[in-house]
Amino acid sequence: MNDLTMTVNADELIMSALREDISSEDVTTNAIIKSYTRGKVELICKQDGILAGLEVFRRVFTLLDPKTEFDMKKTDGDQIKKGELIGTVTGDIRVLLSGERTALNYLQRMSGIATYTHATVSLLEGTKTKLLDTRKTTPNMRIFEKYAVKVGGGGNHRYNLSDGILLKDNHIGAAGSITEAVNMARDYAPFVRKIEVETESLDMVREAVEAGADIIMLDNMSYDDMKKAISIIDGRAKTECSGNVTRESIKALTDLGVDYISSGALTHSAPILDLSLKNLHEI
């Protein structure tokens, strides 16, 4: 996540998070620190995992004070171990105290997602299947959570509703049929847009293939039905498996040969990675 991405897409969200935590003032910090006091604090890893979100962590503090300094020993994507020093933050002690919780909330959440994703991706090693996230993200956290999935080795499905065509059950119901939905989508959307159709039965798979869908999602199907569906599709469309896919259940899907497996669990069920700012002292 570079400076341009941060400025254009993330700063407003980070500022909103800071305003949530500092509605008028940090009364505790202001009570004990009356004026500028230079200090340093250590960022410590308290749990093994994959680091993600350091630039967001930095941005929290630099939005409060651009003069805040960082000496990081690790970068996003690095494996970190319990007890390891990730780096130090130096600056106005009032800024270090007031920004601490927001900065850690981002870093812990993003590192947790990267860690969970990394462990899940490892289960697909040796297969052609790619692991994707979904839009099941925390409101106003999507840019951060989808970035963390990529750091963990996963891929991003469509970013939002403007990003791609995915005809789900209710779209198909509104259109009247898969064929009608695909035809209307193809007529409306630019030719560069791929059309994905969510299917829940073998009959729906057959109709999606005949309608010319580019990607066919096999949603909440049994293992045997997914095998039959892949045979029906026979390479005429990309295949995606979805529906209650977790790190525990994905092992049973690895030999299906689907192109993609999408999992909302990457973002909605990943636990945070325990990190802490410790040993704050005046310098």
Spans where pLDDT lies below 50 across 5 or more residues: none
Distance linking N and C termini: 31 Å
DSSP E strands, number: 12
Q: What's the average pLDDT?
A: 95
Category by helix and strand content: alpha/beta
Quote the beta fraction: 15-25%
Q: Determine the fraction of residues in helical runs and give it as a percent range.
A: 40-55%
> What's the gyration radius in Å?
23 Å
Bulk shape: elongated
Biggest sheet: strands side by side, in what order?
A: 6-11-10-9-8-7
Helix/strand order, N-terminal first: HHEEHEEEHEHEHHEHEHEEHE
Q: What about the largest sheet?
A: 6 strands, parallel
- Count of helices? 10
Would you mind describing this structure in some detail?
- The strands form three sheets. A six-stranded parallel beta sheet has the order 6-11-10-9-8-7. It has a four-stranded antiparallel beta sheet with strand order 3-5-1-12, with helices on one face. A two-stranded antiparallel sheet has the order 2-4.
- α4 (93-121) crosses α5 (142-151), α6 crosses α7 (178-188) and α8 runs parallel beside α9.
- It has helices at 3-21, 27-32, 54-64, 93-121, 142-151, 169-175, 178-188, 202-211, 223-233, 265-268, and strands spanning 38-45, 49-50, 69-72, 79-80, 85-92, 130-132, 165-167, 195-199, 215-219, 238-242, 260-262, 275-282.
- The protein is of the alpha/beta class.
- β9 (215-219), α9 and β10 form a beta-alpha-beta unit.
- It contains ten helices and twelve strands.
